[in-house]
Request: fold
Amino acid sequence: MNAEAAVSAGLTSGWLAIAGLGPGDEALVTPEVAAALAGASDVIGYIPYVARIAPRDGLVLHPSDNRAELDRAVHALNLAAQGRRVVVVSSGDPGVFAMAAAVFEALEASPAHWRDLDIRVLPGITAMLAASARAGAPLGHDFCAINLSDNLKPWPLIEKRLRLAAEADFAMAFYNPRSQARPEGFARVLELLRECCGDDRPILFARAVSTPDEQLRIVALGDALPEMADMRTMVIVGSSRTRIIERPSGRKLGPILYTPRSVPEPVADPVS
Amino acid sequence: MNAEAAVSAGLTSGWLAIAGLGPGDEALVTPEVAAALAGASDVIGYIPYVARIAPRDGLVLHPSDNRAELDRAVHALNLAAQGRRVVVVSSGDPGVFAMAAAVFEALEASPAHWRDLDIRVLPGITAMLAASARAGAPLGHDFCAINLSDNLKPWPLIEKRLRLAAEADFAMAFYNPRSQARPEGFARVLELLRECCGDDRPILFARAVSTPDEQLRIVALGDALPEMADMRTMVIVGSSRTRIIERPSGRKLGPILYTPRSVPEPVADPVS
Reply:
C-alpha cells in the first residue's frame, strides 16, 4: 500500500494538531494541548511560539518567520501525511486570527487524499479573553472581534465593520491593532471610534497579558493615543453600557472594567 | 482591627476567583483554574457546574439554582470578605455571558470596602471556541458573539444586532439559542438570518462539545430547523466567505467548516 492509500484508509499513524498555547503563561496552556505536545514528533510555528516549546529527544522543532503561514501549513500537512505526529502552535486560540484557517486554506489546495488525515484543532485561551479577565469583564455582554490588520482585507471593510459594530453597540475586541509598517491605521480607528462612540467611552490597552511584560491601561477614548498600542497589545472598547469600578484604597488595585449582563427594556411611552 | 479595616488594608487572607471550567472535558481546564480550585475553601456556582468539582476535606460546595446569579455573587463576595478562599465556577469562560459580570454588578452595589478584596477572573475555553475548534475554524476571520436569550435584554435589540452583524459580514456565534420557555425566539432568528444571509449560508449546531453527548451538525440556513438547537447547543453562522471542505472517504470524517483569513481587495473598476 502506498502512502496515499494508507492515508485514505486511515492506516497512517500521522496526525496534525493545530494547538493554542494561550497568551503566554504556562498555567494557561490546557492539559489537552500539553498532551499533544508530549506526543508530537514535530512542532511547527512562528519563531517566538516555537521558542516556548521545551526541546526533547525525538522532537523536531520547525520555527518559521511571520507571514509564512501557508508555507508552514503545507509543511505541516506534508509531514503528517508522511506519518509524523505534528503540532502547529499558535499563541492564544488557533481558530481566532491564527493558524487553523491557514491550514484549512492549504488543505483545500492540496492533494485530495490529505483530507483524510487526522486533523484536530485544540482550542486555547485567546488574547481577548485573557485581557478581558485581567481587566474585569468588558466582554460580559454581546461583543465582536475584529482584526485591525489590513494585510488580509481592504481598509474600507475595516471601517465599515467598526461603524456597524458601534451602531450595534457591541463591545469590540481588536487584534493586531498597530504595526510599525502602518501606524496610521490605528490613529484612524481611534478617530472613527470617537466619532461613533463619543470621547467618554472606556478603552482598554492590555499589553502582553500573563507575561512579565504585562501592562494594563484603561482610558477614555478622548484620551487614547495610537502609541498606547503595539503588536503585543490587545485593545478592547466598551459598549455604551460598559462601566468602571474604581478601587480607591491605597493598595494600588487597578480599576475594574466590566459590561453588565443586561440591557433594560426601554421606558414605555406614557402617552400610548 | 475589624473585618472592614482588615479588608481595606489588604490584611485579610480571603480571596475570590471567578473561574472558567471550559466546555466540559477536564483536559480543557487550565492549570491556573485547577490550582485555584485546589486552594479553595468554598466553591460556588450553578448546580451542574459545582457537580464537576471533586469533594474533598476542607472544601465547602455551594451549588445554587440558575437565574440566582446576583445572590450567588453577593454570597461569594461576603465569604471572601470573611477570609474564605472562594472560587465561583462558570462553564466556558467566566467573562463571556457568565458569572464575572454578575460579580462586578454585585460588587458595585455592595459595601465600599469589598472593592479592596483580592478578586481575580481566571479565563477558560468558552463554548464558541470549543465548537469552532471541533468544526474547523469558522471564527478564523472577524466575528461577533451574541447571547440570544431575551431574559436580560429587549428582543428588538437582538434583531437589530443580527441585522447589523449580517451587514458587517461577521461570522456569528450564538449563546443560549433556544430555551423551553421561549422556543419561538430562535425560529424568528433563523427567519431573519435567511432573509439577511440567504438560504445557502452554512450554520453549525454544536451540542455539548467535548462531552460524551457531543453532536455536530452543519447545514445550510435554508435547511436549519429550530429543533436543531437546545440550551446545550452553540450555534455558529458563517460569514459570506465561510466554506465547507467535504471529506469524501469512507472514514466518516465530518466536513470541515472554516472562514479564510483574508478578504480580497475589490476588483478595480476598469473604466476609472
Q: What stands out?
A: Chain A is about 30% helix and 25% strand. The helical segments of chain A are 3-8, 31-38, 47-50, 69-81, 99-108, 127-135, 155-167, 183-197.
